[in-house]
Amino acid sequence: MMPSISLVSPYKPIICGIADYAYFLTREAPGHCWDVLSFDLDNYGVPLSKDQPSATNHVWYGISSRDDFSASSILQGLEPRANQVLWFQHEFGIWRDNARFVNMLRDLNMPKVVTLHTLHFQSNETRYGLRNEEYSFLHSLLPHTDAITVFSDGVCKAVRHAFPEYTDKVHVLRHGTHLYPRFARMSKHEAKARIHEYLVDESGLDKPSKDNLRQQRVFLDPDTIIIGATGFITVSKGTELLYHARNVLQQVLPKHKIAAVYAGLLREVDSSVDSEFAAELKAKHNGVGQFFLETYLPGDMLAAMLRALDIYFYWPSNCTQSGIVAHALGAGTTIACRDVEGVGETVKMAGGLTSANFGQLIFKIAQAILHPKLRVEIPERALGYAEEFSWRNQVLRHLELAGQLCPSRVRCPTDRESFAAEPAATSTLCHVGADR
Predict the structure, then answer these.
(1) Confidence label for 245 from pLDDT (cuts 50, 70 and 90)
(2) Phi/psi class of residue 409: alpha, beta or left (left: φ > 0; alpha: ψ in -120 to 50)?
(3) Which of 8, 163, 245, 325 has the fewest CB atoms inside 10 Å of its own CB, making it the most exposed?
(4) φ and ψ at residue 173, rounded to 5 degrees
(5) d(Cα 101, Cα 91) in Å, to the nearest integer?
(6) How far, in Å, are 184, 221, 396 from residue 187 at the CA level?
(7) pLDDT tens for each residue of 179-214
(8) Hey, what domains does the chain have and what are their CATH numbers?
(9) CA distances from 157 to 92, 151, 176, 362 (A)
């Protein structure tokens, strides 16, 4: 008998990266193995998607708010089952009171796991690489949970170094990746033609942006190298550097035509800071060889865009993991990424281009442009990584850990073919992942 996981997390239709993360896990899990305890949608305080999860009978939206939660509120929504494990998705902006969160776990007398989405291992604030708040939180948390999971070896080593007495409680469960077999097999020419068609004929782009795409035909010119990015528009993503990277590459490779394309939308339209940032980018970067496209990309078109890009460029100012990188890997994209925290570790493991130095990363991109063989090998390595850490495989790893923690020590079957025979939850939802 498989263990049963009760995820405690934001969930669709809440728009945030961790709600996406929880949804992608449950989408791939057999229906009898999971349910979700989530937040009151009226009090969570972020925009809601128009898309609703199909399996709403598995989701309880009853946790009062990000400031008001307790063991008793969790127990109200919990339907006890055999071999049940409570599995919390944690980020400091979701659970805003650290002491309250620890007290909640202390008062829940059942197996508990916490996935920590935003821990650092390269911070200068402590000698372990953790930030001060993270160290203090873990010091209080670890005695009151059966396990924590993190996304990277770097974070795992940092936590084990800081708290060696809890080494056995710290596990690496990597961020799941998406699989887009249809688009991964698609040629660049096909993908570029499809995304061009969508952007100029079907998308919600404004007329000047569509006219600019039609005029420059950037996706239809076989001689143009496209360096780009997608996702939610926020100041912290370093989007401005995409266009700087394009300009430097054009100087380094004057015989090549290089274009920079960013496609995305505001997560919070009411954010004046992000709205002003988007307006500035749109005004500055819609000229020759530069495109800032403020539009939504539905699931298939997100995959088509990622496949169409010759280079996916990512230089965040502060990021521990990236949902959009998980999409890009599954589309077979050549990723060029700042080597920072867990996102750098992920891209390195997947065989992408990484460097902590901007100039060195530009050099690596130039080498990939000059040697087409690399632009074949790198996507193949990305797809291999995506297969290994697909959401389906990560669900299995969650169930294996949950099985180890159940009082009866029931273990999840390790035969992946038998697991694959289990029907997963189905839905047509697919959203751009957020960065954390």
Answers:
(1) very high
(2) left
(3) 163
(4) -125, 105
(5) 11
(6) 8, 14, 32
(7) 999 999 999 999 999 999 999 999 999 999 999 999
(8) 4-176+390-420 (3.40.50.2000), 181-387 (3.40.50.2000)
(9) 21, 11, 20, 30
